[in-house]
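Hi V.,

Quick status before I head out on leave. The structure for the redesign project is tokenized and pasted below; the design run finished overnight.
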């Protein structure tokens, strides 16, 4: 069996070279130098005109377990569980990131975590938080669709790294850990885009 999607030709039992070609196609489509450059170039405009990017519509109800290829389905379900749980305390993540960057780059801190008043109550939600909080419900819905089971949340906690000395140095460790996790999340997002186009819990730290 085979199909065509955003990654091109798809055999349901691909060999190594077919899988490599699909990965390369997805990287070229979603992670090319031009695309990443455009995203970085757009970031400063968010400081003056904050806006959430629109998502393409995905037919979640049309996704079926047999579309999971090249990996064990139970392993894929566990990955979805882990990713959904990681996304759960998004307000804590955004505020933590805001606190790290507030002195080093106030505009970026606002973009990430918004604005808080003198009583530490949020008065403006950051654009990054608005975008990120859409991920968890998507992973949960996809999990329920594929397994036909209810999702049982086991949300992660925010690490709350202490700011010590240089704000730049204090930001390094939490952002490095977060990037490690987000790289895995992004690869799944890219894979989902590729698999859904035609139908237009292990512990980890974020």
């Amino acid at each position: 069996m085979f199909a065509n999607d955003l990654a091109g030709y798809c055999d349901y039992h691909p060999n190594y070279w077919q899988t490599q070609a699909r990965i390369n196609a997805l990287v070229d489509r979603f992670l090319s130098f031009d695309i990443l450059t455009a995203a970085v170039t757009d970031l400063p405009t968010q400081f003056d005109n904050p806006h959430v990017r629109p998502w393409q519509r995905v037919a979640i109800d049309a996704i079926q377990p047999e579309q999971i290829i090249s990996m064990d389905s139970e392993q894929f379900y566990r990955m979805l569980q882990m990713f959904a749980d990681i996304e759960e305390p998004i307000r804590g993540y955004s505020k933590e990131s805001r606190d790290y960057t507030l002195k080093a780059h106030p505009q970026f801190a606002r973009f990430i975590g918004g604005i808080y008043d003198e009583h530490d109550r949020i008065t403006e939600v950051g654009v990054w938080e608005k975008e990120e909080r859409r991920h968890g419900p998507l992973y949960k819905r996809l999990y329920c669709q594929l397994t036909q089971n209810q999702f049982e949340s086991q949300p992660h906690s925010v690490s709350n790294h202490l700011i010590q000395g240089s704000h730049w140095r204090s930001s390094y460790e939490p952002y490095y850990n977060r990037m490690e996790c987000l790289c895995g999340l992004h690869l799944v997002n890219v894979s989902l885009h590729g698999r859904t186009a035609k139908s237009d819990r292990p512990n980890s730290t974020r």
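Above is the designed sequence. Residues 190-206 have pLDDT under 50 and may be disordered.

G. will cover questions while I'm gone.

Best,
W.
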